[in-house]
Amino acid sequence: MKKDTVVLYPAPGMGHIISTVELGKLILRHSPPNSITISILITTGPYETPAITSYITRISHTYPRSITFHRFPHLSVDTHDCSRSRAAIKFDIILLNTLHHFSHSLLHIAQTDHHIRALVIDLFCTSAFPIAAQLRIPTYYFYTSGASALAAFLYLPKIGEQVDKSFKDLASTYLHFPGLPKLLASRLPEPVLDRNDPAYGDFIYFCSHLSKADGVIVNTFEDLEPIPVRAIADGCCVAEAPTPPVYYIGPIIVDSIDEEVEKKHECLVWLDEQPNGSVLFLCFGSRGSFSKAQVREIAIGLERSEQRFLWVVRAPPRNTNLKQVSEYEDKDFDLNKVLPDGFVERTKGRGLVVKEWAPQVEVLNHKAVGGFVSHCGWNSTLEALVAGVPMIAWPLYAEQHLNRAALVEDMKMAIGVEMEEDEFVSGSELERRVRELMASEKGREMRERSIEMRERALKAWEEQGSTTFLPKADK
Ligand SMILES: O=c1ccn([C@@H]2O[C@H](COP(=O)(O)OP(=O)(O)O[C@H]3O[C@H](CO)[C@@H](O)[C@H](O)[C@H]3O)[C@@H](O)[C@H]2O)c(=O)[nH]1
Question: pTM, whole model, 2 decimals?
């Protein structure tokens, strides 16, 4: 008899793949033993970094019979076309891969004795939607960010119709999304800032398909984001179609069991020697990075704050307009050339700088860590919540400004940094916020609130697992 499988199609990038794998594990945990398998489709090429390759290898070894990755054969694509934005190129690559490989992969899965019970796609993989509809496969979205950003994206096609200028040209205009604090138009994700960029049309197309799916699965829990959850449930976010069923199955975060541990990371050894709750951790997701001038200001702020810190530093992006390193940038940079002269010596004992990557989940759960400066990536946000660590919110790109607004204004789980017009943050501003979080009454209250929210997150975790979103198995 054919075995049921759920096919997951994440967007490329660690932030999307990790949480999709965790969703797969959740489905397995809540299904009768050996009743179901998980098939995960992976876009290769420039997006499959060494970190992703070794992560996939580890998961394949740990779940040899229940989770199978199907890597799309490599397609050679010009990623340096200067006439197209980065987002437009990325969306094109996903589209091309979908058109070339998606149906073949489904066919292959079906031929290897599987019945495809459902397809779960990432927002950026919407190009698979019409193909799945033709094949009559029940199709769900897995939304890897929170309910706040989902409410905004459900509503975005409507806002797009209401304005006749590019959002980037509405610099001082605030947008009002149902269930969200107001947001400056220029702080929307970069693919939608310019109407003339093909990425704009793509993004609106993706968002308008959310309401056509059999359901949207969201990595959050209702207690964390009650206001946008209510706005979505009340049908305020979708203009012309009924709101699809939305399933809040979070918080799902990376399982540190799946991390590669050859030997304890030097930063964990260093944390062991620090007093409880004394260290501020600074880390900006899998790709966040800063210009040399901004790195210098962060160093000034940390030095003047006199607080203990653990700071993950990445090479400044080659394209200085971006706040992220691209997948193909050289990771082998000289840390000493990026940090200000003498910074490491002057902060020795109370500060540690780590190049490129730190085991974030373990760091956040270390008893020495008392605060987190984050880019508000959703995985980082949930990891901090589950660890009970309050944050300083410093959004960089994607939907992170939406997350920041929710974290600072609704959840009161983070202090926001004030940005200058070009989004630069001065050393003195950072110093002020660091002292506020680590050494003031407000910081102490936030730590208490974070511990309360941790309890609620753990409760949601225990109750989690409703995989009721899956269509019934064929008997
Ligand atoms: O030194 C590091 C840096 C990152 N991480 C891990 O990498 C993941 C990063 O995920 P996330 O915080 O979501 O950031 P991004 O990698 O930037 O994720 C992308 O995907 C997210 C989910 O859709 C979005 O919320 C973000 O805006 C988008 O940039 C987390 O699990 C971190 O624990 C580490 O373990 N060590």
Answer: 0.93
Q: Is residue 189 in contact with ligand 1, taking CB distance under 6 Å?
A: no
Pocket test for ligand 1, best of 145, 203, 254, 286 (most atoms within 8 A of CB): 286
| ipTM confidence score | 0.99
Is there a contact between 180 and 148 (Cβ–Cβ < 8 Å)?
A: yes
> What are the angstrom distances between the C-alpha of 145 and each of 43, 128, 165, 218, 445?
20, 20, 27, 7, 26
Question: Model confidence at 144, in pLDDT bands (50, 70, 90)?
Answer: very high
Q: Work out which ligand 1 atom sits closest to the CA atom of 144.
A: 23
Tokens of 345: 């010596």
Query: How far is it, in rounded angstroms, from Cα 41 to Cα 12?
Result: 10
Record the tokens describing residue 299, joined without a space.
Answer: 């160093």
Residue 353 CA to ligand 1 center (angstroms) comes to 19
Q: Cα(first)–Cα(last) distance of the chain, in Å?
A: 11
Q: Which of 102, 137, 287 is nearest to 213 (CA)?
A: 137
What is the distance between the alpha carbons of residues 57 and 76, in angstroms, rounded to a whole number?
23
